[in-house]
Design goal:
By secondary structure, the chain is of the alpha/beta class. 39% of the residues lie in helices and 17% in strands. The chain contains eleven helices and ten strands. The radius of gyration is 17 Å and the shape is globular.
């Protein structure tokens, strides 16, 4: 069983447990559910294009930064020009939690992407309830039909959708309702990174769709290469989070690309 399959198996159990604790109605009654969401599509084109990520750990890298509270980091990301914030909410494999979004939502004014493995309708109500603006749909663990249905549900809830693909086969998951397409430079099954592969996939997308380069951007040269190839957005976490003060590193990075 590869790591993605392990994550999905655990996620199914996690969702089942959550449903017995918090009902969909309780999620609808939560503080942020009626909140008007922010548009990542608009923010990507008006700011730096970087979706800066708060990320404690990953299956491939282990502990990256064991910071308990994300507010100081994400506030710095916003201050220095991030177009959006990505926050991982998977606990077992990435060290995240719902509280990481809940605790920063009232303090920042740019879009928040709930980054998780979305496989059940219940999770979309969770995302709205915790104050997210965007959800990630990972083609590798969904069917094209599920992507279409989850996109429709997301839009009904006022959430934008970032569809993540990595293979040519996964291009079939794209539909005209998708807001943004992310191309993962890292293969989720073996965690190898290939920037050229991502560029090749981007060239097969419709010209009018906003594209986001995800993961594996380790150097300024990587960023510049992907920018030159026409990517509109860049989801970056480890590049900043591996340092003691991610906000300072983000500020330095922004200065270099302006």
């Amino acid at each position: 069983m590869n790591i993605l399959n392990k994550i999905i198996a655990r996620k199914k159990q996690e969702i089942s447990d959550s449903k017995t604790i918090v009902s969909v109605q309780q999620l609808k009654d939560s503080e942020f559910f009626a909140r008007k969401t922010c548009s990542l599509k608009e923010s990507l084109t008006s700011k730096s294009g970087i979706i800066a990520e708060f990320k404690r750990q990953s299956p491939s890298k282990g502990i990256i930064n064991d910071t308990i509270f994300p507010l100081e980091i994400v506030s710095a990301y916003e201050q220095f020009g991030a177009s959006g914030i990505s926050i991982l909410t998977d606990k077992d494999f990435f060290g995240g939690s719902f509280e990481d979004i809940l605790n920063v939502r009232n303090h920042i004014n740019i879009p928040i992407l709930r980054k998780d493995f979305m496989i059940d309708e219940y999770q979309f109500y969770e995302a709205k309830g915790m104050g997210a603006d965007v959800v990630l749909l990972i083609a590798a663990c969904l069917s094209p039909q599920q992507v279409q249905e989850f996109t429709q549900l997301s839009h009904e809830l006022g959430l934008e959708v970032l569809l993540e693909i990595h293979t040519e086969e996964e291009l079939k998951h794209f539909n005209s309702e998708i807001d943004l397409v992310g191309i993962n430079n890292r293969n989720l099954k073996d965690f190898k990174v290939d920037l050229q592969h991502s560029v090749n996939l981007k060239n097969q997308l419709p010209e009018n769709i906003l594209s986001v380069a995800e993961s594996g951007i380790y150097h300024m040269d990587d960023f510049k290469y992907l920018k030159e190839k026409g990517f509109d957005g860049f989801l970056m976490g480890e590049y900043f989070m591996k340092h003691e003060n991610p906000g300072n590193i983000f500020e330095e990075f922004i200065k270099k690309i302006r």
